[in-house]
Amino acid sequence: MKLKVISHSNKDNDSMQTNNFSFIVETSRTSVLVDAFNDSFSVLAENNLLTSNQRIILTHNNHSENGIDLSKLDKHIDSASTPMVCYLPEIDLKDAYDFSDNIECIEINPSKTLKLEDLTITFHKNLSLNPSYAVRFCSGDLSLVYTPDTAYHDSLAGWAYEADILLANCGHFRRGEYHDKMNELEVADLINGSQPTLSLLLPDNSVSEPVAMLETVKKNAWGMIELVEPDAIYDLNNLDETTSNFTTLSL
Hints:
- By secondary structure, the protein is an alpha/beta fold.
- 16% of the residues lie in helices and 31% in strands.
- The strands form 2 sheets. The chain has an 8-stranded mixed beta sheet with strand order 6-5-4-3-2-1-14-15, with no helix packed on it.
- Strand 7 (114-116) and strand 8 form a beta hairpin.
């Protein structure tokens, strides 16, 4: 199983954090695109990542900073006999009307397991102002957990326990200042509770110095911890105890 990181420069964002990210989780038999943004669809389409047989999981697309207009996604999908399947939170289904035959919208159900060929996917509801889900991908003995914006809660650490990779959003603010985000110490608590092989940190818009954020987490958490590398491929079959194994993804 591989994790591909796709960075998108956000020209409309004047804050320190200049990239939004999408992810592809890939096995030998299938792939899933995780999270996308209105201004990223053209880049994804140019690189053949928005084909009709692609599945997309939108973990929290109702949040204001990365709201999704599915009609814009539709414009980048070539018509085909099989629609693209898009899994998304329930609050967003009211906007997922039948504007075309290119997208089939399915509500995320945290009580059910999603099976796509050799990839098993489960969801955990986050503590968030709007419906948002963490996602766990499993293939054979390998597992990857992605936690978008959420407040810290003990059940998340238990659910994410012993993942090969934990991919977590991390901010820089006072503990409890936000109702749906984690700061460095809260992410450290999540890492200590879940004990992944490798933790990859996604800096929030509040982070002006990602390296300093990383060092704070490292001082308070267990194991191998790194900043996520933009446009990299992480091979979960080949993670060692000193560094993540990744290559550059050319888009």
